[in-house]
Amino acid sequence: MGAVETTTLQDWISRFGAAIAEKREWLTELDSAIGDADHGANMARGMTAVSEKLGAGAPTGIDDLLKTVGMTLVSSVGGASGPLYGTFFLRMGMSAGAVASLDGPALAAALRAGLEGIVARGKPEARDKTMFDAMAPAVDALDETLASGASVAEGARAAADAAAAGRDATLPLVARKGRASYLGERSAGHLDPGAASTAILFETLADAIAG
Ligand code: ADP
Ligand code: MG
Ligand code: MG
């Protein structure tokens, strides 16, 4: 019960792209405070390229879908976020494999593999004020919720809530990774833009799974 199909994940990617387009200015505003004011533009450019690529033909399975998303982000986004999100989707696809559906534990394992890809690439640690601070609690919350016997939909909702809380918790932090770290103490008092886009990633996943 509650398997996540290829079409559910396609819906996720399309919802994520739409939400990024809608929140583009906000993401850019966040990045203008502690970065170089391009996070909204970077993510919107990447997700527009993803939507064009996916429009060209139906994916053969979950790995094909996620690898296409990952490769497109890596090749179309110049900033730090392109390789990081690209690696997330590539690793998630490799973990999922050539299947047409994932049960809760397989989805959780795939998301964790994606998170580990980000860690391998960017070396973020907890409280460095990066996308990791939204993603790690989200993946943990999914594991914990599933372990308590909840459905994958309930798990994805708990993950979205944890990602939003993780995003909010970046506000007082002093950045230790990425461009924001150049500001030192002046990076405190602002949300991390990548944590904000990651909260959108998990919110749209929960919405797609809820249907
Ligand atoms: P750039 O900083 O190159 O302009 P973006 O503005 O698109 O790229 O993305 C910035 C976001 O990338 C940050 O808000 C942060 O969440 C994330 N980020 C930057 N460096 C790292 C890193 N080493 N590890 C994890 N996330 C990082
Ligand atoms: Mg930037
Ligand atoms: Mg930049």
UniProtKB/TrEMBL annotation:
<dbReference type="GO" id="GO:0019563">
    <property type="term" value="P:glycerol catabolic process"/>
</dbReference>
<dbReference type="InterPro" id="IPR036117">
    <property type="entry name" value="DhaL_dom_sf"/>
</dbReference>
<protein>
    <submittedName>
        <fullName>Dihydroxyacetone kinase-like protein</fullName>
        <ecNumber>2.7.1.121</ecNumber>
    </submittedName>
</protein>
<dbReference type="InterPro" id="IPR012737">
    <property type="entry name" value="DhaK_L_YcgS"/>
</dbReference>
<dbReference type="GO" id="GO:0005829">
    <property type="term" value="C:cytosol"/>
</dbReference>
<keyword id="KW-0418">Kinase</keyword>
<feature type="domain" description="DhaL">
    <location>
        <begin position="7"/>
        <end position="207"/>
    </location>
</feature>
<dbReference type="Pfam" id="PF02734">
    <property type="entry name" value="Dak2"/>
</dbReference>
<dbReference type="GO" id="GO:0004371">
    <property type="term" value="F:glycerone kinase activity"/>
</dbReference>
<dbReference type="GO" id="GO:0047324">
    <property type="term" value="F:phosphoenolpyruvate-glycerone phosphotransferase activity"/>
</dbReference>
<keyword id="KW-0808">Transferase</keyword>
<dbReference type="InterPro" id="IPR004007">
    <property type="entry name" value="DhaL_dom"/>
</dbReference>
<dbReference type="InterPro" id="IPR050861">
    <property type="entry name" value="Dihydroxyacetone_Kinase"/>
</dbReference>
